[in-house]
């Protein structure tokens, strides 16, 4: 259980960073809607506020500069031009870095930090100091900011906590202590509202304080002290001087507090461990309380934040639920089987009910699966940053256009897609998109465009990365493949085959090793990652027009369609996605080749046969080829093989049970499932069965080579 | 039945003069036992699903209320002959590192309560495996009962497989 407040803070940071990125992307797209600007400002401000509470000074300092510039934009003192937007985008990337450094440890790129701060400072004029925010008065030394030599001012503060404030664990004492750090403080208790003992209610808050503070700090610092009790108290702060400055600061503050208020709730139970006070009120019984105007009504805050209320749940709980639903489905098929075995004349009523049960179970399953499903939006937003960084590193300009961001995919898929997508996008910028001058010379827009789209396609998710660059340089790819000994010198390959050479291990076209790609571990890693998710990846390319990578993924990792087969008296499941066709073989279709190789002839084509039982070590290697059933499968390389099994029983949805922790990696087996009779069945991985089967492997290479020569 | 016997895990009970309970069972004709607190349940043998390429002492996997658990043949694990599993055999489900694991035994005999001081050290023998897997022996009804060191028995094959 993640209980610590700090974890909550970082979780929120993640959301805020996403919100910020989203906002900036909209702004980059030319929409300078004040609401969007505000949203970004609020996100940065909240990060800063939280960071201050945890004493994350680097983060606070940077967020502060960032926020200040944004505030200028907000008040229309700064114009959002391309240069500034680029700077802000880079800053947002850096802010994300700082957050992860704060969370995971590690070093901050100080140089980069300084460059960005300098960049931000260029936009800051004299007014900066007026708007200095101390993030919190509590956290000790937080921001080393240059403060103007302001004259000392006296603030008259009236502070009347509502009873809700005590429910959140805030203590007036600590607030006063924080205030007294700003300057000499005089505290006068106002107990005029205190009723007699007989009329006193335990949970009510009757006390108020009149405070007189003399300080050189701006009013914002004073306000900041009360940041976390905003909305939980009646507060008025009046200063004796400088009315004009105050008005400006107040305007900024009100806007700022408009959002910090809704964050106050999760952050409140922080540094102060409130001693249990007799006045502590149950939070669950909010009463309409009269409020002076200084206190913002709480009710209108949550609505401002997001479109829909959400619930944050431990992932483990959801997984447990998914597991239980899987059991329910298995249990249903067991029950159905048992009932069918009963010797009862009329089963119609029972069967009708059973059908209803089945539909309900499916509904529940779909519902539970959709809990795990998440839109790809956050992933895509992160990708925008990858493209930015990659373009900066290669002196190219490219922008990422995303489509179908709301397509929902299983959370695990999203997590594990991040690396392959990063790789493909970097490659697209590094190898695909041409230099701006070259682009102009051939009549393209100087800025390259990379389109990242996601869509649902008949039970799977399709992710496409399309660039408008130069496309695959086929002669060069082929030459490199020959140089590296990946294909024979005289190989004749089709265009598609050449494109697919990119996925071969150890293939890299980069002339020199660049920062981004070209470390020799390339697209084969991408391919492995996609395959591990049960997906496929394809490339198509048009010279001069660009290339497209298509990734097809299953919607969920928990359930899949499988064909139930029997192999050497064991029931096994083959993923339906890898099967092209099934057929019953007869003797005359089988042709021997060499000492122990066999080929199956299908409509004039010959494909190698791989006996699954042999490959899994379940049958003696010299046993006769069973007159069985063949599953024609296609491997990633496009080569076809026939898997020989004893029989096919059924085609059904199976719940995937991982074998991790049960036993190690078994060649040929991807996972397990539980069948209707309660038995466990292995889910096979055709690709690794073929790899494990030596005869098939040799045939495969031979076939590929002969094919290559023949075509 | 001595119900007052202490049912607590760990070394404490060995130190205290309380009796501890062991479940004894036979594997390939020899008597073995496990502390009762290590055992989650005992089930009748039912055919398991074979794991391809598994070592001889890994019989396969079994469905235990929705969880896939591996089943080890204790006899083969101890270097004795493989058990011909049948309906009469039992699977002792134990938890190792909080993960359920099934152990195939010939049959379960009884629950024996003994004082810690009755546990004797394993005498030095040639077989290295035996020394690892047996953490002590008890004399009970004139027979020798071997106390199994569960951690040694299970962690080794698991590493071997992965």
Brief overview, please?
The complex is a heterodimer of chains A (711) and B (162). Chain A has 711 residues and is of the alpha+beta class. Helix content of chain A is 42%, strand content 21%.
Describe the structure.
The complex is a heterodimer of chains A (711) and B (162). Chain A has 711 residues and is an alpha+beta fold. Chain A is built from 21 helices and 22 strands. In chain A, helix 2 packs antiparallel against helix 3, helix 13 runs parallel beside helix 14 and helix 14 runs antiparallel to helix 18. Chain A is flat. Chain B has one domain: CheA-289, Domain 4 (OB fold (Dihydrolipoamide Acetyltransferase, E2P), Beta Barrel), CATH 2.40.50. The radius of gyration of chain B is 16 Å and the shape is globular. The relative contact order of chain B is 0.21. Chain B has 162 residues and is an alpha+beta fold. Chain B has four helices and ten strands; from the N terminus they run H-E-E-E-E-E-H-E-E-E-H-E-E-H. In chain B, the strands form two sheets. A five-stranded mixed sheet of chain B has the order 8-1-2-10-9. The N terminus and C terminus of chain B are likely disordered. The longest helix of chain B is centred in the last third of the chain and has 12 residues. Chains A and B meet through helix 11, strand 21 and strand 22 of A and strand 4 and strand 5 of B.
């Amino acid at each position: 259980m993640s209980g610590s407040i700090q974890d909550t803070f970082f979780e929120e940071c993640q959301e805020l960073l996403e919100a910020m990125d989203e906002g900036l992307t909209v702004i980059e797209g030319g929409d300078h809607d004040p609401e969007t600007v505000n949203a970004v400002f609020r996100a940065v401000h909240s990060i800063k506020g939280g960071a201050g509470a945890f004493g994350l000074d680097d983060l606070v300092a940077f967020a502060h500069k960032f926020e200040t510039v944004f505030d200028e934009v907000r008040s229309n003192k700064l114009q959002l031009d391309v240069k500034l937007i680029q700077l802000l985008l880079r800053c947002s990337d850096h802010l994300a870095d700082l957050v992860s450094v704060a969370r995971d440890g590690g070093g901050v790129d100080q140089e980069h930090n300084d460059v960005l701060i300098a960049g931000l400072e260029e936009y800051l004029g004299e007014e900066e100091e007026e708007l200095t925010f101390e993030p919190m008065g509590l956290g000790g030394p937080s921001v080393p900011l240059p403060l103007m030599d302001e004259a000392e001012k006296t603030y008259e503060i009236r502070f009347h906590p509502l009873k809700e404030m005590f429910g959140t664990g805030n203590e007036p004492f600590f607030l006063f202590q924080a205030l007294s750090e700003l300057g000499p403080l005089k505290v006068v208790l106002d107990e005029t509202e205190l009723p007699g003992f007989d009329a006193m209610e335990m949970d009510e808050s009757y006390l108020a304080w009149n405070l007189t503070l003399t300080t050189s700090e701006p009013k914002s610092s004073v306000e900041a002290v009360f940041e976390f009790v905003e909305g939980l108290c009646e507060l008025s702060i009046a200063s004796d001087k400088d009315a004009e400055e105050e008005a400006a600061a107040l305007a900024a503050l009100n806007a700022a507090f408009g959002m910090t208020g809704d964050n106050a709730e999760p952050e409140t139970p922080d540094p102060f461990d409130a001693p249990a006070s007799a006045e502590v009120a149950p939070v669950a019984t909010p009463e309409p309380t009269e409020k002076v105007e200084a206190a913002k009504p709480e009710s209108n805050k949550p609505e401002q934040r997001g479109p829909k209320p959400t619930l944050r749940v431990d992932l483990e709980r959801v997984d447990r639920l998914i597991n239980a639903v899987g059991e329910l489905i298995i249990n249903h098929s067991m029950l159905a089987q048992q009932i069918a075995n009963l010797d009862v004349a009329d089963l119609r009523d029972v069967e009708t009910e059973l059908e209803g049960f089945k539909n309900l179970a499916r509904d529940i399953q779909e519902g539970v699966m959709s809990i795990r499903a998440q839109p790809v939006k956050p992933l895509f937003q992160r990708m925008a940053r990858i493209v930015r960084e990659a373009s900066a590193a290669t002196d190219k300009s490219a922008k990422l256009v995303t489509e179908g961001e709301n397509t929902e995919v299983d959370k695990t898929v999203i997590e594990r897609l991040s690396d392959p997508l990063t790789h493909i996008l970097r490659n697209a910028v590094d190898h695909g998109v041409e230099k701006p001058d070259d682009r102009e010379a051939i009549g393209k827009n100087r800025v390259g465009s990379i389109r990242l789209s996601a869509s649902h396609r008949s039970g799977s998710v399709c992710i496409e990365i399309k660039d408008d660059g130069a496309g695959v340089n086929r002669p060069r790819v082929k030459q490199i493949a020959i140089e590296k000994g990946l294909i024979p010198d005289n190989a004749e390959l089709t265009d598609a085959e050449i494109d697919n050479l990119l996925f071969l291990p150890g293939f890299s076209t980069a002339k020199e090793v660049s920062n981004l790609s070209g470390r020799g571990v390339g697209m084969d890693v991408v391919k492995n990652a996609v395959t591990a998710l049960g997906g496929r990846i394809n490339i198509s390319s048009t010279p001069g027009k660009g290339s497209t990578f298509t990734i097809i993924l299953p919607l969920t990792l928990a359930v899949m369609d499988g064909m139930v087969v029997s192999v050497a008296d064991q029931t096994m499941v083959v993923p339906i996605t890898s099967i092209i066709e099934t057929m019953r073989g007869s003797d005359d279709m089988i042709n021997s080749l060499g000492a122990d190789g066999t080929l199956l002839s299908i409509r004039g084509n010959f494909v190698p046969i791989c006996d699954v039982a042999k490959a899994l070590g379940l049958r003696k290697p010299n046993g006769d080829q069973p007159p069985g059933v063949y599953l024609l499968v296609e491997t990633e390389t496009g080569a076809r093989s026939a898997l020989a099994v004893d029989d096919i029983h059924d085609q059904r949805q199976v719940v995937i049970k991982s074998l991790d922790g049960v036993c190690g990696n078994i060649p040929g087996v991807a996972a397990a499932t539980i069948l209707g009779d309660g038995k466990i069945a292995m889910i096979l991985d055709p690709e690794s069965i073929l790899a494990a089967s030596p005869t098939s492997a040799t045939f495969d290479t031979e076939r590929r080579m002969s094919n290559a020569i023949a075509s | 039945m001595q119900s007052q016997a202490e049912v607590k895990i760990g070394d404490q009970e060995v130190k205290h003069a309380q009796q501890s309970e062991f479940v004894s069972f036979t594997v390939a004709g020899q008597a073995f036992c496990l502390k009762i607190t290590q055992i989650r349940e005992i089930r009748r043998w039912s055919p398991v699903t074979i794991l391809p390429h598994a070592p001889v002492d890994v019989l396969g996997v079994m469905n235990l209320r929705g969880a896939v658990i591996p089943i080890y043949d204790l006899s083969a694990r101890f270097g004795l002959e493989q058990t011909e599993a049948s309906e009469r055999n039992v699977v002792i489900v134990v938890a190792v590192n909080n993960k359920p694991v099934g152990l195939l035994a010939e049959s379960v005999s009884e629950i024996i309560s003994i004082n810690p001081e009755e546990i004797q050290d394993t005498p030095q023998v040639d077989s290295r495996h035996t020394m690892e897997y047996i953490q002590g022996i008890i004399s009970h009804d004139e027979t020798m009962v071997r106390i199994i060191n569960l951690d040694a028995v299970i962690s080794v094959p698991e590493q071997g497989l992965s």
